[in-house]
Amino acid sequence: MNRSGKPRIVVMGAGFGGLWAARSLAKHPVDCLVVDRNNYHTFLALLYQVAAAELEAEDIAYPVRSIISNFPNIDFALAHARRIDPQNRIIETDGETISYDYLILATGSISHSFGVPGVEAHAYCLKTLEEAVALKNHIICCFEAATWEADEVRRRSLLTFVIVGGGATGVEYAGALSELVHGPLVQDYRTIDFHDVRIILLEASDSLVAGMPAPVRDYTLERLGKMGVEVRLGAKVREVTPAAVLLSGEKEISTRTVVWTAGVKGEPIAGLSGLPTEPNGRVPVLPTLQVTGHPEIYVVGDLASIRENGRVLPMVAQVAIQSAMTAAQNVARQIDGKAPQPFRYRDRGSMIAIGRNTAGVAIGSRTYTGFFAWILWLVIHLFNLIGFRNRIMVLINWAWDYLLYERAVRFVFPSEMPSPAGSQSRSCRLGREIDQQRRYPGEV
Q1: Are β-strands 244-247 and 237-241 bridged in parallel, bridged antiparallel, or unpaired?
Q2: At what angle do helices 423-439 and 129-148 cross, to 10 degrees?
Q3: Over 60: is that where the pLDDT of 43 sits?
Q4: Can 172 be counted among the known catalytic residues?
């Protein structure tokens, strides 16, 4: 209990799960504190469009304090949580320690390299705004460098873009990158022969977007092929180097750009805190979403390994939102002396955008592809964006791109990369290397 006499619930993470948990607690007599290392919420479903110069980073981010401003019993702390001490019910951060009576863990997921050598050092991931901006910078820098590159082999390497992972993120980014390359960039870089540009999508299994029904999977493969994306199924990456991707049993692909979307794992704070975790970093939870042995700790969203009907629920936004609301309700029930209720997931369908007028939607046993599915995808994503300004800006950028075939944010902005990949530093270094080669040949 804090000084107000009310139970203190700490929600770690300001993603879909964290925000919906906090908002569900707003109507209860508790003090809720949201903790996150960033003071903004990111609409991750559109992150790939930032990396493809279709949207600005500010279009899909919204201040956390603005979201909770109408809830007097919810506060926010900008802090990087390092470790949880479940025995003493405190959270160790990069600043002050934070105490709690109940804890809802909603820290989400991070990219998973599966132990493939070179991924963390040389590949670009697509999980944060910083990574998306750095990837966009790098793509544009590759075309700038290719404009001045005299060596044919090096130029083709600069213009080869490899995306690893045929899930929703990989497919959507491949389609968006193809439209960027074969649309606005053709006008920007008139001296480049765009027959040299290659976009390669590698998937280790035998199909793309494995979680979607067969008609959507087949449609996705067909549409990407027509958009100029080389799809290689059954392609397993053995190693990533600064200048190539090495595949098992195949020749290497010479490239300066590897985008890793092959998988994710649970954010590491649970394991660092001694909570039980699976090999992928996710926390196995009880049907009530509580951690075994710690009834005051709930785990929701991507970090939670939730089993239902013999399967683990996917790491998608709807699971995060619904599990967060159930966790918040269970905390309130515990405070009232009632038993927590088990979580029941309601699958509302899945969807994927492949490109202009092209998408796939699965709702129950029904599937939709093409223009209607694309309109449905646009409406649902626009509706789920937080903030009126964000919706207007995204709508304007989409309309501008659709009507004029123009990406208005094709510029290189400075970006610090806190991730191990160091994407921004490599992007900047690429431009400096090419510039130095032009001035002082043979010295790099």
Answers
A1: antiparallel
A2: 10
A3: yes
A4: yes
Average pLDDT, the chain: 90
- From the candidates 54, 131, 144, 172, which is the catalytic residue? 172
pTM of the shown model: 0.90
pLDDT in tens, 63-115: 999 999 999 999 999 999 999 999 999 999 998 999 999 999 999 999 999 99
Domain boundaries 8-37+79-111+265-335, corresponding CATH code: 3.50.50.60
pLDDT tens profile 409-422: 777 766 554 433 34
Question: Average pLDDT of 155-170?
Answer: 96
Whole-number Å distance between alpha carbons of 203 and 251: 16
- Measured from the Cβ of residue 77, the count of other Cβ atoms closer than 10 Å reads 18
119-262+349-439 has the same fold as 8-37+79-111+265-335: yes
Q: Where are the domains of the chain?
A: 8-37+79-111+265-335, 119-262+349-439
Q: In terms of Cα–Cα distance, which of 311, 346, 304, 392 is closest to 18? A: 304
**Distance from C-alpha of 26 to C-alpha of 29, rounded to nearest angstrom:** 8
The answer to whether residues 21 and 328 touch, using CB atoms and an 8 Å cutoff, is yes
Q: What angle do CA 59, 394, 178 make, to 5 degrees?
A: 95
Helices (H) then strands (E): counts for the chain: 14, 28
Q: What is the 3-state secondary structure (H, E, C) of 312-367?
A: ECCCCHHHHHHHHHHHHHHHHHHHCCCCCCCCCCCCCCEEEEEECCEEEEEECCEE
pLDDT computed for residue 425 by the predictor: 39
CATH top class, domain 119-262+349-439: alpha beta
**For residues 257 and 265, what is the distance between their CA atoms, to the nearest angstrom?**
23
